[in-house]
Amino acid sequence: MSRYVYKEAILDHYRHPRNYGDLPNANAQAKEENVLCGDVIEMQLRLKGDRVDAVSFRGEGCAISIASASMLTEFAKGKTIPDIKKLGKGEVIGLLGADPGPARIECALLGLEVLKAAIGERRDTKVP
Amino acid sequence: MPAADKKTMTFNVNKIRADFPILKRRIGGRPLVYLDSAATSQKPKQVIDAIRRYYTEYNANVHRGLHRLSEQATVAFEQSRDKFAQFIGTKTSKEIVFVRNTTEALNLVIFSWGRTNLRAGDHVLLTESEHHSNIVPWQMLSKEKGIKLDYLRIDDDGILNWDSFNELIKEGPKALSLAHVSNALGTINPVKQMAREAHKVGAIVVVDAAQSVPHMPVNVADLECDFMAVSGHKMLAPTGIGVLYGRYDLLDHMEPVMGGGEMIREVHLQDARWNDLPWKFEAGTPNIEGAIGLGVAVDYLSRLGMENVRRHEKDITKYALDQLADVKGLVLYGTRDVEKRGAAISFNLGDIHAHDLATILDTQGIAIRSGHHCAQPLMERLRVPATARASFYIYNTKKEVDILVKALESARKMFKI
Q: How far is A1 from chain B (nearest CA, A)?
């Protein structure tokens, strides 16, 4: 797999992040920060049963962290909680279409960390 | 002969580059453009060979054995101390303590001099552009002793704000501790002028010289500082060797921070007497190869002449600042006046995250640093999460600046800025 990450698709997701902003009637959410570089990703999910009905995100960071979060929101929609729990580094690299290498892989994995944290923090009450 | 020709005769970059084996490396098929010397410098073959010679010809512990190898190792180790003493103009080599790096040198001052001499309510004066190594240990001591840390403001161009100095010096700080040259902005602080004022109120002056001693002539007597911390690895020597300079009378009254072998004169079951300076502060077997490498690095820089090093860096920094200023959307941090700055240049390009920029430049064989540069308070002051930093040294050329600028232009187009 290519080391070169700044392909058209990644730059497009960075410049035009999908599913960006608030999600009405979200019932799960999480926020994580990469303390090393200050990147922050926040996700909101609407779970129906064990299925992801809708997902949105918001964040500040580098192209790799924003694009991978954006791609993950598209990917997660319609997937089940067990599907999401199975996701790992390999799947994220697959979505990006490139391996960002050891120095930047943490940027790429931030969105996945947030997504997994969100399904673990499901709440039945409405998100304030 | 025109003046320009004279300069090139005393300072021949191509000849210097030939001494650095790593500069022949190619990264992804392109020549390495190493612009990260503020993080660590590359090493000339003279230094690498000296370390190899030590291990192949006279490896032994120092100050112990009476055999030939130990004698040779001890002589080489102590000669390096003498060379460094001469290099920064100390009165005696006893004022040169070998440590691991600048961080350890600062910690030694703070946890020895600071712990003994500071009491609850005492003020210590720092600047908001300090490296974490000149903030965090003071904070640790502050928690222990209840001392108060005051921070000098810097103006938007990175230059120290004198009003804030005049205001905070009235608090009667017991210590002024600051970087000679900022690692993130490159600003040269007017240490001598500040030291004079600080001494008038009875403060001691601690200088983090990690970014100055490798790059310009520095003389401790001229700077009028009491302590100075330096890292060897930023000045052609290996990692793991650094120097604390301290005024003899201050060091003489300080307690060691680490106990063990080497630092003692005599040990009994309940008590011990310390060794003489500087060994009192050098517990355990020291970094012998590092010290020997540092001595050779000092020889190398002395041969070039630090005035010439500074002139070369001013020249390339001015060229780089001019070229970078022409890149659309590029923001430069710090002063543009090369008389007031060193050769580390911080910048951002449009809204491209500094880490993205560093990764993109890496694909072109260009090594820069990105991030907060261990100066998070400064990043907060500049209101940026991170910056990209290109830093130059004796082996960098204007052609390399051109390669950097070209790569930035293509990154700009890629991100549609």
A: 15
**pTM recorded for the entire structure:** 0.92
The two tokens of residue B188 are 């040269």
**Residue located via tokens 């010679």:** B53
* CB-based contacts of B304-312 (< 8 A; 24+ apart in sequence): B304/B11, B304/B16, B304/B394, B305/B10, B305/B11, B306/B216, B306/B217, B306/B218, B307/B217, B308/B7, B308/B10, B308/B11, B309/B11, B309/B215, B309/B216, B309/B394, B310/B215, B310/B216, B310/B217, B311/B7, B311/B11, B312/B11, B312/B13, B312/B394
* Full DSSP string of B276-306: PTTGGG--SS--HHHHHHHHHHHHHHHHH-H
Residue A127 in this model has a pLDDT that exceeds 90:
no
Torsional class of A3: left (φ above 0), alpha (ψ -120 to 50), beta (otherwise): alpha
Mutate to test the interface with B, among A33, A35, A62 (most CBs of B within 10 A): A62
Q: Which residues of B touch A69 (CB under 8 A)?
A: none
B371, B372, B415 ranked by CB distance to A11: nearest = B415
Q: Span B41-56, mean pLDDT? A: 98
Q: What is the pLDDT of residue B7?
A: 47
- pLDDT bin (cut points 50, 70, 90) of residue A35 is confident
For residues B292 and B289, what is the distance between their CA atoms, to the nearest angstrom? Answer: 5
Distance from the Cα of A27 to chain B's closest Cα (Å) equals 31
Per-residue model confidence (pLDDT) at position B6: 47
- CB contact under 8 Å between A38 and B414, yes or no, is no
Write down the pLDDT at residue A3. 60
User: Is B374 an annotated catalytic residue?
Assistant: yes
| Tens digits of residue pLDDT in B161-173 | 999 999 999 999 9
Please give the average per-residue pLDDT across A92-100, as a whole number.
93
ipTM for the predicted complex comes to 0.85
Task: Check: CB of residue A73 under 8 Å from CB of residue A45.
Answer: no
Q: Is the pLDDT of residue B369 over 60?
A: yes
Query: What pLDDT is recorded for position A124?
Result: 53
**pLDDT at position A123, please?**
63
Spatial separation of the C-alpha atoms in residues B330 and B344, rounded to whole Å? 16
Q: Which residue among B352, B356, B385 places its CB closest to the CB of A38?
A: B385
Catalytically annotated residue among B39, B250, B374, B384: B374
- Chain centroid to Cα B104, Å, comes to 12
| Residue positions counted in chain B | 417
